[in-house]
Amino acid sequence: MHRTALTSIAPEIFRKRLLVEGHFAIDVSADVIRDYFARLTDALRLRIYGEPIIHRTSGQGREINEGFDGFVPLVDSGIYVAVWVHPRFMSTILYTCGPFDEDRAVSVICSYFQLSDHEAAVF
After folding, report:
1. Residue 7 domain-assigned?
2. Residue 37 in domain
3. Is residue 113 part of a domain?
4. Reduced to 3 states, what is the DSSP secondary structure of residue 112?
5. Spatial distance between the Cα atoms of 82 and 70, rounded to a whole number of angstroms
6. 40-98, pLDDT tens digit by residue?
7. Torsion-angle region of residue 66: left (phi > 0), alpha (psi -120 to 50) or beta?
8. 103: Cα within 13 Å, side-chain hemisphere
9. Torsion of CA 22, 112, 50, 75, to 10 degrees
């Protein structure tokens, strides 16, 4: 996993970001994304304070970009996921103002999406 220190801007505000990208093997739908948010937040003991927002592009752009965008708000920030269904590629970022186990998060994400390859970075 790539690790880069946070910037020196606003050092009094703790923040941690984890980016994971990879090619997935599962079939993705809005329900799958909703379940992803539930499993990841449960595994990391993060608190959700609102319902996930999930959109499907539904042919509004280029076919290669067809897929889903989703966001769930956390008490300590939020989680975003983008899914490209045709190249079977996903990108997710977990942004928090509290600590979490980034190795556990990567493990849950890789397992859930059945990633054949991935890259991860904490910054």
Report:
1. no
2. yes
3. no
4. helix
5. 7
6. 999 999 999 999 999 998 777 777 789 999 999 999 999 999 999 999 999 999 999 99
7. beta
8. 0
9. -80
- Asked whether the predicted pLDDT for residue 6 surpasses 70, the reply is no
Residue pair 118/26 in contact (Cβ under 8 Å)? The answer is no
Report the alpha-carbon distance of residue 18 to residue 43 in Å, rounded.
15
14-31 confidence digits (pLDDT tens): 889 999 999 999 999 999
Give the pLDDT confidence score for residue 5 in this predicted structure.
Answer: 67
Report yes or no on 117 lying in a domain: no
**pTM of the model as a whole:** 0.92
Residue range(s) defining the domain that contains residue 89: 26-97
Number of domains in the chain: 1
